[in-house]
User: Fold these one by one.
Assistant:
Number 1:
Amino acid sequence: MAKQGYKNRIRVILADRNITNRTLADKLGVSEMTVSRWVTNRFQPSMSQFVEISKILNVDIKILIEVDPTEISGTVEDEAVYALMYPSSSEKKPVL
């Protein structure tokens, strides 16, 4: 089974907790359209927004941003996600 993308994880958690896009948007101070764009994969939340979403939904941020280390493309954002996911110096980044 393929891993769910962040958009599906947010959507599943919202549905599981009976939280609407509007409620999440209000708590984040963004528009309902912005949240809708996240859950439909038109846009991606920023790292700071992922942090706030994880706090509001009371979930570990890794649940929202988990990535397969073999899929990291080397962008600055990917490097930041990798650093959050694998803080131990004993875990080596895969060679691409």
Number 2:
Amino acid sequence: MHWRAPETATSTASTESAILDFVGAHPDYDILCLIQATSPFIAPDDFIQGLELLQSTGSDSLVTAVRAHRFMWSVDPKTMAATAKNYEPLKRPRRQDWDGELIENGAFYLTRKAVLQKHGCRLGGKMVRLETHTLALALTLTQTPTPTPTRCCKRWPSTPSPSSTRSLTGRSWQA
């Protein structure tokens, strides 16, 4: 357990300040794994795949992301004019004909010590992404402040039972 310094344990402190506080107290590491408690659907295989991807590609940091097939817009606050951000409206593609967008979901990050020391940031150097499963997309897009099964799935069983075992992208979970 690590007790954060008071200045890094506030509602306005950045994640990077907490990371730097942690590694200052625990400097014996090669790769740091930052896990976000607000991402409850991370599976053990995600960590294994992430570490293998980081190492096999010779990357310095890893970000997790989910794929979304959403057309995004921005609005000028002065004129209220809307502008498409990731497609041409006059040539609107069918969603199944494009790869969509990768959205950083913050589930977890992997960072090599040298990168964190050089940049003071969880991401830097050669970056690679791990695409996580689509249930995480629901949480990413809804931005639930405290994700819970009842907030993201209307028919999530309230108590475990043999019939409540489901499969998520080949992974089993127990409700």
Number 3:
Amino acid sequence: MKLSVVGLGPGDPELVTVKAKKVIENSQLIFVPSMKSDLSSRAYHTALPYISKSVSIVPLYFPYFSNPRFSEIIQSNIDSMMTKLKLYDQAAFLIIGDPFLYSSYFQLHQFLQEQYPEIKIDIIPGLSAYQLALSRLQIPAAGNNQTLSVITGDVNHEKISSVLGLSDTVVIYKINQIANLAHFESQTREFSVRKICCEIGTDQETIRDLNHKTALDHYGYFSSIILKKTNL
């Protein structure tokens, strides 16, 4: 049995890699992670131009880590995947961004390796949202002797403070999980670049300055902040 885990990039079908496109076009079974147990998944709609009409699509619900039934739901997803995979022998698992950067799939990876070592897992990398955002801003992630840190908004205050102090460039995913965005904004004023990036790679894409006013607004799941101490 073979499972191809396909990174699709931030959400623009034109940014799907050639290899990812080929895997999707040749798949007869596709697993789609979703936060609503349906096909509203961004991964599904990004890959849709390349999915054959005859394909079997299996949506899989992925909760937040804080969900008290998290482990139970993940195991249920694995059981559902194996039932289908035994019938088809091969499948693709679609992921927005890259499979190993804050994706739904990495919640499954270790469980699959431990419970089903006979499955051959192929990882297809994808463009990450922060890489696309940096290209929009036309600033490098890191230059000579510079450091880059990527974190999520739910890390504790001490870790965020440490990262801000040690890094030249900081990317924060899932800023809707930052407990106090206004306080966080006040900690970042030494950075010359401070941008809030929302829905990167989609028709709803926006990039705005992070300041004391924008820090009071509310942001969705696919929102991130990019900080850089110098443009060089």
Number 4:
Amino acid sequence: MMKTKMMVLMAVASMFTSISMAQSAQSPEPGGVREPPPQAYTDCIGKKAGDIVQHTTREGKVTATCVDSPKGLVARPNQPRGNQPNLQPGQSNS
């Protein structure tokens, strides 16, 4: 009987651990803050805060502004994700 209770307890503990790990994997950082991708820093090399750049994303290039961050200058898209027009190579939206 004691062996059965111990096995059930271990199974429940394992289940809670798995759930906790799955939830922590879904949120990138505490408080929901995401780290910019490396390309966002690369796009602002040689630029200064306020400069406009074409930031490369998985969806293509979007217009972004270089802004200061704790880790250096980073490209921040000017429009929320999904609201940028799709640009072809060599095309600008200005």
